[in-house]
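We were asked to recover a plausible sequence for a given structure. The inputs and outputs are reproduced exactly as logged, with field labels preserved.

PROBLEM: sequence recovery
POSITIONS: 239
GIVEN STRUCTURE:
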């Protein structure tokens, strides 16, 4: 399947149309951004690692009953996906308090959240991706109440699966973000699941093994993503 024209380019990925009207090529670039795009850098091999990491997690979630946009890997840094009508919403689950939640509510860093905390954010970099609730979603027409409920249910369902998945690799799934879209009347998990969009801490040392290494200048960003992939049993191909 060849790339026709670029239909969008975000901060880390680009989407291209294909000869098939319902399918897109998602290219994972090396570009890495933080703080709503204020910090940007290209990290060698990030596109390769994240594309293959995402494919592995999406395929794993599909085996557990979470339907996704992922179709197949096309190359080390490209995947074929279904073209969705995306909700402008980020769904976040937190199993531990850290980052913006601690700042916002004065919560102690690392606090275990049981039950896990679910939050909606509006996908809008210019506004700093603000926290929103179901009422904002329905009143402004970003999704229906039923769609918001489904997004929340699927995100929490994925949490049960992923907490165990990472725990077996001696990792704590601290928090993560998911995006959803509609395809032929059905809600599918879209976008990506990679160490760029989640927080993972080593169970023994609590070392950060995710994009916080980039945000906080801790170094070895891609080496650490690769270690996570290896612990999960992935065999990542680099160019
Ligand atoms: N299956 C899909 N169909 C259509 N659009 C999709 C699909 N999966 C993801 N997208 C969209 O593609 C874009 C990917 O861009 P990318 O993740 O690089 O950056 P971004 O969204 O600008 O930044 P951020 O990482 O802050 O979300 C996003 O707008 C995302 O919502
Ligand atoms: Mg994105």
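RECOVERED SEQUENCE:
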């Amino acid at each position: 399947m060849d790339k026709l024209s670029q239909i969008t380019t975000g901060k880390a990925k680009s989407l291209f149309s294909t000869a098939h009207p319902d399918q897109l090529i998602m290219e994972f670039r090396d570009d890495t951004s933080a703080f709503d795009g204020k910090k940007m850098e290209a990290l060698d091999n990030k596109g390769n690692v994240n594309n293959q990491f995402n494919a592995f997690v999406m395929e794993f979630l599909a085996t557990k009953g979470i339907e996704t946009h992922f179709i197949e890997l096309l190359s080390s840094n490209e995947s074929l996906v279904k073209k969705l009508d995306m909700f402008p919403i980020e769904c976040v689950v937190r199993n531990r308090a850290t980052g913006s939640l601690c700042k916002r509510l004065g919560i102690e860093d690392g606090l275990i959240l049981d039950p896990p905390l679910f939050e909606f954010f509006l996908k809008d970099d210019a506004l700093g991706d603000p926290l929103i609730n179901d009422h904002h979603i329905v009143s402004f027409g970003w999704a229906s109440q039923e769609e918001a409920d489904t997004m929340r249910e699927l995100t929490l369902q994925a949490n049960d699966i992923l907490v165990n998945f990472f725990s077996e690799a001696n990792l704590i799934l601290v928090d993560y973000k998911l995006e959803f879209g509609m395809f032929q009347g059905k809600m599918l998990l879209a976008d990506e699941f990679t160490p760029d969009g989640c927080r993972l801490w080593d169970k023994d040392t609590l070392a950060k093994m995710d994009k916080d290494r980039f945000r906080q200048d801790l170094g070895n960003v891609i080496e650490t993503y690769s270690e996570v992939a290896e612990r999960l049993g992935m065999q990542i191909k680099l160019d």
